[in-house]
Specification:
By secondary structure, this protein is an alpha/beta fold. Helix content is 33%, strand content 16%. It contains 16 helices and twelve strands. It has a ten-stranded mixed sheet. Strands 11-12 form a two-stranded antiparallel sheet. β3, α4 and β4 form a beta-alpha-beta unit. The radius of gyration is 20 Å and the shape is globular.
């Protein structure tokens, strides 16, 4: 059961074959040549050995048409030629591909940095050592709360202890270790404990991200943060940032931690330009699906955000000539709607994270999960509340639909 009354869905649904033969513009523009994907996140496989309740891709089974080793190696070449500087390998679980170490080696030989993100269930000493020998430079292990909360969110008993063991295995292999954490109503109160665990692991960095209403996360809307929850979250994050500084851990707020509240410069003190900016999907970042689909961000829905497939066109042509990847290069204030259209920061922020807004409403341009916005409503004695009005269908990278209710703050 997927947790929704009267509905039974496979925990890991089969993905459809990748979208193919998508249209490209006749030619690239100057602006398309100016932007380059310095950072790429590559889903090597959709196969996974966990069943995370927040997983936007509903990972579990490999895609039916994942790239061959030869196709992956050619893609590495094209990324290097396009100007990619760092590649993060994800899944599913990247290590469930038999050739993942070979791909790591190819990325490094092409002159790019290579990292990975893992749930850690199968990150054995042998896997960690093989990856390090191939040139992997760093790995991020997911820790989402204390043991009971982590295991509940990750869908497998023992996942927490496996993550801690994976961290130890990666450190023993000589790899730089970081931790990433999903923030939702289950994990938020436990963030101080997570940070102390991170410090104990000698991790150098901590990436935090709000859980987004996509995939399995859309099946449990009560677990997702409400806009008013940010009024509690951000003062907590500010205190945790100070603790990070004391312990020598770099806090790395993700692209949907924001925006422009009183703690902005403190939280992003280590990340130029030291405040939130507009979404970088298709501008400085690129996402790659295991079947060769190219997106501006790895988190974005496959449809309508796939710009092309590497089996049909070169990576450069897809990057420069596909409409979905051009979206943020062309976005203006006139593309915003709702509160974001009227906001003081509209032209700088442009509704922030495209993925977060699209997952809520089926269109970008209005993002209620914003600290500045929550504060502005609080000053009026109001708050916004997200209500799910349409459930997600249960397919990889899917989303339901929410509506915003504006109401008085309860006494």
């Amino acid at each position: 059961m997927d947790g929704r009354t009267g509905t039974s869905l496979p925990l890991a649904p089969r993905a459809n074959p990748g979208r193919r033969h998508l249209p490209l513009a006749p030619q690239a523009r100057d602006v398309d040549r100016e932007w380059r994907p310095v950072y790429a996140v590559w889903e090597l496989t959709l196969a996974c050995d966990l069943a995370c309740r927040h997983c936007g891709s509903r990972a579990g089974r490999a895609r039916p048409d994942e790239l061959s080793t030869a196709e992956c190696l050619d893609l590495v070449r094209q990324m290097a030629e396009l100007g990619v500087r760092e590649v993060t390998l994800i899944g599913g679980e990247a290590y469930l591909r038999d050739d993942w170490v070979q791909i790591v080696g190819a990325i490094r030989q092409a002159g790019m940095e290579c990292t990975t993100t893992t749930g850690g269930r199968g990150m054995t000493p042998a896997r960690a050592q093989a990856a390090a020998a191939a040139g992997l430079q760093a790995a991020s292990v997911s820790i989402d709360g204390r043991e009971a909360t982590h295991d509940r969110l990750r869908g497998v008993a023992g996942a927490y202890r496996s993550a801690l063991q994976a961290a130890a295995n990666l450190r023993a292999a000589g790899l730089k270790l970081s931790v990433n954490t999903q923030i939702n109503r289950l994990s938020m109160a436990e963030l101080p404990d997570v940070l102390e665990t991170i410090i104990g692991l000698s991790a150098y960095a901590w990436q935090i991200q709000l859980t987004v209403a996509m995939g399995r996360a859309a099946d449990a809307p009560d677990v997702l943060l409400q806009p008013a929850d940010l009024l509690t979250l951000f003062p907590l994050l500010a205190r945790l940032k100070t603790r990070c500084d004391e312990a020598g851990v770099m806090l790395w707020p993700g692209n949907n931690i924001g925006y422009f509240g009183p703690y902005e410069s403190h939280l992003r003190a280590a990340i130029p330009p030291f405040h939130s900016a507009s979404c970088g999907a298709g501008c400085t970042t690129m996402g790659i699906e295991a079947d060769g689909a190219i997106k501006g961000c790895p988190s974005l829905q496959s449809e309508p955000w796939t710009g092309g497939n590497i089996r049909d066109a070169s990576l450069q042509d897809i990057w420069e000539r596909s409409a979905p990847l051009r979206y943020n290069r062309d976005r203006t204030v006139d593309d915003l709607w709702g509160y974001c259209r009227t906001c003081y920061y509209a032209d700088t922020c442009r509704a922030g994270c495209t993925w977060t807004a699209f997952s809520l409403f089926g269109k970008p341009g209005n993002n209620p999960l914003c600290h500045h916005r929550a504060l502005e409503f609080q000053r009026q004695g109001k708050r916004e509340r997200l209500v799910q009005v349409e459930r997600a269908p249960g397919t990889p990278f899917d989303n339901g639909r929410f509506e915003i209710v504006v109401e008085d703050v309860p006494a």
